[in-house]
Amino acid sequence: MFEPPFAQRLCERPLWGLSYCSFLLDEFIESMVEDAVHVDVTREGNVIVGFERLPDAVERIRRSEGPGIQKTDDEDEDKAAAHEETTAPRRSDASSHGFASYTTKPCTVSLPRRALDTQGWGEKESVDLRTERINMRTVGILYPGDMGHHVARVLLEDGFAVVTTLAGRSERTRRFAADAGITVLTSVAAVVERADILLSIIPPTAVQAVAADVAAAVRQTGHAPLFVDANAVSPMTVQEVAQIIAPSGAPFLDACIIGPARDVRGRCTFYVSGPAARTFAEHLGSSLRTHVLGERIGQASAFKMAFSGLNKGLVALLYELTVVAQDFGFLDELLRQYTALLPGVMQALEWLVPTYPVHAARRAEEMRELAETLEYFGFSSAMARGTQQTLAAVGRLKLAERFPARGEHGWTLREVIEAVAHAGALKQEKTSQE
User: Fold this and answer.
1) Which domain CATH number covers 391?
2) Same-domain pairing of 167 and 292
3) 312 near 366, Cβ under 8 Å?
4) Residues 142 and 128 in one domain
5) Which domain, by its residues, includes 330?
6) Measured over all CA atoms, what is the biggest interatomic distance in the chain, rounded to whole angstroms?
7) Among the three residues 245, 265, 297, which one is the final residue of a domain in this structure?
8) What is the reported pTM?
9) Is residue 383 classed as helix, strand or coil in its secondary structure?
10) Which ranges of 269-355 does DSSP label H, i.e. alpha helix?
């Protein structure tokens, strides 16, 4: 993005800004005379360059309403000049390219003159919008849950616009969106139409449904933002999601988020893979720490599986061992010895375990994804399946609902262990042997 003084000049003098952009784009426009070229200068100083199929551009312009829209060509060039301060200019060399110019405030759409006569276009395909934005500054988040709304906070602090929709979402998600200051739109289609990059941050069980909603919205709006699946799912699930998105024409990126939601800027890393990985890193990497794993869809999701399996496995093992210690009356001494011999592990567990009263059920689903990944590729999944079973049992306790006064962050490691032990969730009934 341009520096503030330059951005201010662009906003104050859109004529000057667009002329500058057209100078930079001369050679590119030469090769695109069969397409419509439009240049936007936003009030934030971002310069946006887009390309459309001619029939779509003509139809869009003819439907345009409101002040500041006028047609200029060789006959009314003088009239257009009189509006220099309120409309974007006709390029000085437009005639040499065979262009007529439709001007609005503050954007210009330039078309080859033959596009003004649409007779003979015949049957046309549905909207095939191809857009490249120099600055991707609007991010859609589906949906602003615990991680999503913290990601939004970081982006908003750094000057991005963040949008979402809350149709059918829980009161908790609505509260998160309001707390973060996210702009709420009426539908998924409205989010898709506004966003340059769309982050999917949801429970594993919902990823295909949300992808289908987005694909439908892309077809409906004709706008195709970069779709980023940043969920804790298997590489096989990511491939399914990519296949759902692909027919819409939206670019797809495999991603995962490693780190605590409460410290996205300081301790979280977005691991990304796929052809669009460098684009993500270029536009969001200064705000969201990003590591590009490669250009292969599935690498990021596999990384998430391998990483999360360890920390969730540690939590599940701790549950199984400490409920026994609680039952035998030596929990304090066991925790003391763990801390003395494994201080780093216990430090991690001190902040991991208190998050499970809220997130245990979702993390059990993530372990199911890990187990299926291991099995699909021919590896043992014994530990993953065991972890899934243990976390699912803790999730069924619904501790956050049983103890609402504690809220989401009012637990300690010991309190969670005691609650799980008291509920007897990990005790198995003895069966009589004949």
Assistant:
1) 1.10.1040.10
2) yes
3) yes
4) no
5) 309-423
6) 103
7) 297
8) 0.67
9) helix
10) 277-284, 299-328, 331-341, 343-352
Nearest-angstrom CA–CA distance, 233 and 368: 9
Could you list the pLDDT tens digit for every one of the 434 residues in the chain?
444 444 444 444 444 444 444 444 443 434 443 444 444 444 444 444 444 444 455 454 445 444 333 343 444 444 444 433 333 333 333 333 332 333 333 333 333 333 333 333 333 333 333 334 446 899 999 999 999 999 999 999 999 999 999 998 999 999 999 999 999 999 999 999 999 999 999 999 999 999 999 999 999 999 999 999 999 999 999 999 999 999 999 999 999 999 999 999 999 999 999 999 999 999 999 999 999 999 999 999 999 999 999 999 999 999 999 999 999 999 999 999 999 999 999 999 999 999 999 999 999 999 999 999 999 999 999 999 999 999 999 999 999 999 999 977 899 999 999 999 999 989 886 655 54
Measured distance CA(367)–CA(98) in Å, rounded: 60
Q: How many residues does the chain have?
A: 434
Q: For the chain, what is the domain count?
A: 3
